[in-house]
């Protein structure tokens, strides 16, 4: 069984997708980490003329050892990730790894932006997660605060809106709700309620 979970920044899709992985005993991949790892690799070259070429090279040589979640969670890396994610050759370089993960024997859960549209259009269940920008900002702010980081909510709100806009307008992105995706709005749901709702959708389609 392949479960595809797509949605905007800080929509709760990662928590939801990893919860589904545990519930159904399926391996889980956070595909945003791949783009974040590429973004981090070219962080020092953001303003240079060869940013694109360097990002492509980083994507082609990306190693599993580079995908260290603890170094990749900042807003700065999130924003860099969305900049490398508009480069078509970066997306193609990361395709096979995601595709192989999705199609492994026994199934998998993946979250990202284009899982249901491009990586695994044949997924058995597709969830498209939505939540209003203000509540997404607040969730992300609390995650940072829980790690002891100071948060400027105004700046964070704008970073999230800017990243969403770049992702939605990304001509190579595939970030839209697939026709056969189930829409799940988590604005008013806590983690447990959102997971119960997602499990109900998955169970209902099996
Ligand atoms: O999911 P996360 O917020 O960690 O993703 C970081 C960035 O990586 C996104 O804003 C998006 O630009 C890019 N991304 C993507 N396709 C995916 C996953 C992430 O373009 N499947």
Structure explained in plain terms:
It is an enzyme of class 2 (transferase). Belongs to the cytidylate kinase family. Type 1 subfamily. InterPro entries: Cytidylate_kin (IPR003136), Cytidylate_kinase_dom (IPR011994), P-loop_NTPase (IPR027417). One of its GO terms (molecular function) is dCMP kinase activity. This protein has 206 residues and is α/β, with parallel strands linked by helices. The protein has one domain: P-loop containing nucleotide triphosphate hydrolases (Rossmann fold, 3-Layer(aba) Sandwich), CATH 3.40.50.300. Helices cover 52% and strands 11% of the residues. A 5-stranded parallel beta sheet has the order 2-3-1-4-5, sandwiched between helices. The protein is globular and about 50 Å long. The mean pLDDT is 95. The site of cytidine-5'-monophosphate has 15 residues, from α2, α4 and α8.
Mind summarizing the main beta sheet?
Answer: 5 strands, parallel
pLDDT < 50 stretches: none
- Rounded to the nearest angstrom, the radius of gyration is 16 Å
SS summary, helix count:
9
Beta strand %: 5-15%
Counted up, domains total 1
- Going by helix content, strand content and strand pairing, the class is alpha/beta
Helix coverage percent: 40-55%
Name every ligand kind in the structure: cytidine-5'-monophosphate
What is the number of strand segments? 5
* CATH topology category name: Rossmann fold
Determine the N-to-C terminus distance: 9 Å
**Morphology call:** globular
- Reading off the top of the CATH hierarchy, the class is best stated as Alpha Beta
User: Which CATH-level-2 architecture?
Assistant: 3-Layer(aba) Sandwich
Q: Please, what is the CATH homologous superfamily?
A: P-loop containing nucleotide triphosphate hydrolases
Summarize the helix and strand pattern as letters.
EHEHHHHEHEHHEH
What is the mean predicted local confidence, pLDDT? 95
Major sheet: arrangement of strands = 2-3-1-4-5
């Amino acid at each position: 069984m392949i479960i595809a979970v797509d949605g905007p920044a800080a929509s709760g899709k990662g928590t939801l997708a990893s919860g589904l992985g545990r519930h159904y005993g399926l391996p889980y991949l956070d595909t945003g980490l791949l783009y974040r790892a590429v973004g981090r690799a070219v962080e020092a070259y953001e303003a240079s003329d060869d940013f694109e070429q360097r990002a492509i090279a980083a994507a082609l040589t990306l190693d599993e050892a580079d995908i260290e979640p603890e170094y990749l969670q900042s807003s700065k890396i999130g924003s860099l990730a969305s900049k490398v994610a508009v480069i078509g050759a970066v997306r193609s370089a990361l395709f096979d790894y995601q595709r192989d993960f999705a199609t492994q024997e026994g199934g998998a859960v993946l979250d990202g932006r284009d899982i249901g549209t491009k990586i695994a259009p044949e997924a058995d269940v597709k969830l498209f997660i939505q939540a209003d920008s203000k509540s997404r900002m607040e969730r992300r702010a609390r995650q940072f605060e829980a790690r002891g980081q100071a948060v400027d909510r105004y700046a964070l709100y704008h970073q999230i809106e800017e990243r969403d806009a770049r992702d939605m307008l990304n001509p190579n992105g595939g970030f839209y709700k697939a026709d056969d995706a189930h829409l799940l709005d988590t604005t008013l749901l806590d983690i447990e309620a959102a997971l119960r709702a997602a499990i109900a959708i998955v169970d209902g389609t099996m």
